[in-house]
Request: fold
Amino acid sequence: MHKRRCCCGRWASWADGGRVFRLRPIATGSLFLLGSAGVTQRNGDRLIGFTLPQRGARGRVVRLDQTVSAVLAAHAYPPQIARLLADALVLTALLGDLLRPEDGQLTLQAKGEGGPVKLLVADYKAGALRGYASQDLDRRFAAAETLKALFGKGYLVITLDQTEASERYQGIVELGGETLAEAAEIYFGNSEQLPTVVRLAGVQQADGGWTAGGMIVQHLSRSELGAARLHVEGGDADWEYVRALAGTVQADELTDPALALEDLLWRLFHEEEVRVLAPVLLSRGCRCSLDHIRGVLSQFPDAERATMRNDAGLISVDCEFCSKQFLLEV
Ligand SMILES: [Zn+2]
Reply:
């Protein structure tokens, strides 16, 4: 690691092969902390949003630890699927906060045909994340862990359910690229016409728990975000610059439990004006309560419910997200 003291008095450090800071007075770039609600000492299970107003870009950066560990601990996935689901949870947190489905839900699904992974699902609602994957046990994993090797022919589906407005938006693209991060970049580039950088990383710690992190940065179109209102400037040259800086983030920076997300942003964009939003705390959450399941079952006609009952007259319902089984008298 290199370490150098900036003229603003802070230390910058970065890994070999990483970005180069041209150190100059910090007055040319300031870190504005907007709001302090929810500030925590923990660096994990935390997301922050940011904008680079003079470059016309916005982003999110996230790190998960207990959340991703709890999701994965509920299953006994092979390591290939565990890594994939860790990436999917990080991506879902980034998109969930970025696209803000009001009080609704964002669901990310990757569906495969002909590979060992049949389905990967993660969703986000008000800071709660959950996810699971299903495997085709007749198919073996290849040595490579590209999306093609894992899914065969695959699709990425992103669904936004807006509870208030009862509206649903769904985007579907073919799973492109080699990684989930590349697939997400292609999704936004092609279907949303939004140039986007996505980085995802996950690592299993010695104690079996996981740390996963990620970042998304997008070029804002003037029309979309109201350039005048946000004072958003920035053309293609600005975006190329932001993309180059964002692209230098290293996997071990995203997953370093000791590196605060604010410090990571500072490392990346330290010459820029970065506006940081109040942190969002994330947790693992599932909606599989007895009341919820009873409510769902009560919508089936009596005759259909009768076919679901076992010999003891109970209906068994599994939650695939948490691997829990519920037995109900309905
Ligand atoms: Zn559940």
